Amino acid sequence: xxxxxxxxxxxxTAETFDPANTPWLLxxxxxxxxxxxxxxxxxxxxxxxxxxxxx
Length: 55
Fold this sequence. Notes:
Number of helices: 1
Radius of gyration: 12 Å
Strand order of the largest sheet: 2-1-3
Largest sheet: 3 strands, antiparallel
Mean pLDDT: 89
Distance between the termini: 15 Å
Number of strands: 3
Low-confidence stretches: none
Helix content: under 10%
Number of domains: 1
C-alpha cells in the first residue's frame, strides 16, 4: 500500500499512469492503494527522502 511503502515520508500527493484519464493520463492514489512492480509513480515530497525498494 502507498501508506506503508512511503512510511516516514512527508508527501503531499502520489499519482500513477491512467490511460483513460485524459488529458494528463494520471490518477491520484491514496494511502490504501496498492503499489505494484512495473508501474510508474509520481510522488510529490516536501522533504528529502531516501526510498529503497527491494524485490
